What does this fold into?
Amino acid sequence: MKSLVLEEKMKLSLRDFPIEKEEVLGPHDVRIKLHTVGICGSDVHYYTHGGIGVFQVKAPMILGHEASGIVIEKGSAVTGLEPGDRVCMEPGIPDPLSRATRLGLYNVDPAVRFWATPPVHGVLRPTVVHPAAFTFKIPDNVSFAEAAMVEPLAVGVHAATKAQVKPGDIALVIGAGPIGLVTALSALAAGCARVFVSDVDDTKLELAASLGAVTPINVARQDLVQEIHKATDGWGVEIVFECSGSPKAAEGVFDPLCPAGRVVFIGSQTHDIHYSVGKAMVREARVEHVFRYAHVFPRCVAMLASGAIDVRPLITRKFAFDDSVEAFEIAASAPKGEVKMQIELPQ
Ligand SMILES: [Zn+2]
It folds into this structure.
């Protein structure tokens, strides 16, 4: 069976790939048959640009890191997972002995090996060997498609955790892409009374508005700060989540923020940006950054299982594995209204 291989920038192929046979099952590992893999903005960026910052594709690499599947084999020391278990996987494997990992900060371990980040292969392929410690069982009422959403959802849950959401907080999420929407869902689940979501795409904003106590703001025709002030008696929002990655949006994060508010930067910025320390200072703003996530996969699974979070409206399109090259071409064209596209592997 084939893998989806990024040969080089703008060149994808579905072909046999030797890594499959080379992977050895260690005592603490499980072998997983992949079921569903979501297409992430980073996968698309590797495809269209051949790299992201210091991570450049120098040899053929399998794409995909948002995945769910079924355990088909377990290592001799694995407890708690059995062949046949339905699972989702955390795609970053840190060095267990590193200082960052020992401090519990494993996501910022400089040695972390993350799927589909060169030179590490992703999982748009038949099977993968993965540490059991980063493999999470999903209950029967959570589908493989939802389970493959746990990875992006984890970013939102980590951001809401960093923001220390309190019941009744009002938040603004800048950007209604997949990460913006999972952040809005996480903020609501964490206790926000209302979440404003800003974007320029009406279809995505409509979807955002359907997710709960969400007020959409189209910044192409509405003034963001004015709208926020109108709705909060001029006070501002307690939390701003920057999910757009737009330098201009990121520079303005303090304008809609209330005194002693919190800002979480989530969207990645290719270049340095400017922000006003003066505006942050007069508000005594707290600024946080997130890099992926840590310790939140079990929480995400629990919220999907209980219904506290429903990610299903975010999955807007599914492709068969045989059509995955086409799926990436479509994803690269950034079609309006599409949020999360997923690929289903043959079972
Ligand atoms: Zn992702």
Summary: Residues 40, 42, 65-66, 151-152 surround zinc ion (CB under 6 Å). The chain has a mean pLDDT of 96. The two ends are 11 Å apart (CA to CA).
